[in-house]
Amino acid sequence: MYKLVFYVPVAELESVKTAVFAAGAGNIGEYQECCWQVLGAGQFRPSAAANPFIGQAGKLESVEEYRVEMVCEDACIRAAVQALKAAHPYEEPAYDVWQLAVL
After folding, report:
1. Other CB atoms closer than 10 Å to residue 51's CB: what's the count?
2. Which stretches are annotated as coiled coil (predicted)?
3. pLDDT confidence of 103, banded at 50, 70, 90?
4. CA 41 to CA 67: how far, in whole Å?
5. Phi and psi (nearest 5°) for 89?
6. 20-31 exposure pattern, b = at least 16 Cβ within 10 A, e = fewer
7. Which domains can be identified in the chain, with CATH numbers?
8. If you average pLDDT over residues 7-30, what whole number do you get?
9. What are the CB-based long-range contacts (under 8 Å, 24+) for 82-86?
């Protein structure tokens, strides 16, 4: 079992979650599309070689984003990350994948 955590701009929240859920993430027992989400602010400065979805190269940017957390079975974690990358508007989406201990 894994935990997938990612950050996504407010306007793209539902479309990215839908893609990741469709890949099999977010299932807990008899419940589907389970996640935790909280609004915060992300910060970044795109390099001159970047093609930012939001902001301009060389300029510090702050964006309202959601942090979204969900569990994912071993069998679908790679598909979930691929779906996240395909659906996310950023060229370099920020995400973490943590393997969880089974007790």
Report:
1. 9
2. none
3. confident
4. 9
5. -75, -20
6. bbebbbbbeeee
7. 2-99 (3.30.70.120)
8. 97
9. 82/23, 83/19, 83/20, 83/22, 83/23, 84/4, 84/6, 84/16, 84/19, 84/20, 86/19
